[in-house]
Amino acid sequence: MKKLVLAIAFIGMGSFAMAQQTNPQDKEARKAEMQQKRQQKEQEHLSQMQKDLNLNQSQVAQIKDLHEKRKAEMKADFEKNKDNRQAKMDERKAKRAQMDADMKQILTPQQYDKWQADRKAKMEQKRVAMKDRKMMKKPMNTATPEVK
């Protein structure tokens, strides 16, 4: 029974792993699409602000410049902290590898395999939960009644 459950779990994880593979063209296309959507949302937000706050063209231009300046600052901060972030990720990866080695010494091969399978299943559950949470945060495309 345990072997059957483990076999099903491995097959399920294998199918998830296969479904996640993407090629570089897909990534580039997705990146371009996301950038276009982001620009469209920024424009919609600016138009909504103009309508709600009764802004003139000069104010719209100033706000747009302010947003561009803020975006450039955030990008610079991101690039500045990139090395530090990578070092932290490498450190976590090394600690995880050390824990794996220690667990492999402590557990029997069967126990270690079961522990690995349980860990992967929990990671997949967390990944799905995070995806669901992101989906819930997105606003629905429903019309809202105007309040006058």
What would you note in describing this structure?
With about 150 residues, the chain is mainly α. Helix content is about 85%, strand content about 0%. The protein is built from five helices and no strands. The radius of gyration is 24 Å and the shape is elongated.
Number of helices: 5
Mean pLDDT: 83
**Amino-to-carboxy terminus distance:** 65 Å
User: Strand pairing plus helix content: what structural class?
Assistant: mainly alpha
- CA radius of gyration: 24 Å
Number-wise, the strands total 0
Stretches where pLDDT is under 50 for at least 5 consecutive residues are none
Beta-strand percent range: under 5%
Q: What share of the residues lie within helices?
A: over 70%
Can you tell me the overall shape?
A: elongated
Q: Give the topology string: H per helix, E per strand.
A: HHHHH
Largest sheet: none
Key features of this structure:
mainly alpha
Short précis:
By secondary structure, the chain is mainly α. It contains 5 helices and no strands.
Question: How are the secondary structure elements laid out?
Answer:
Elements: H1 2-19, H2 24-53, H3 57-80, H4 82-106, H5 109-137
Helix pairs in contact: 1-5
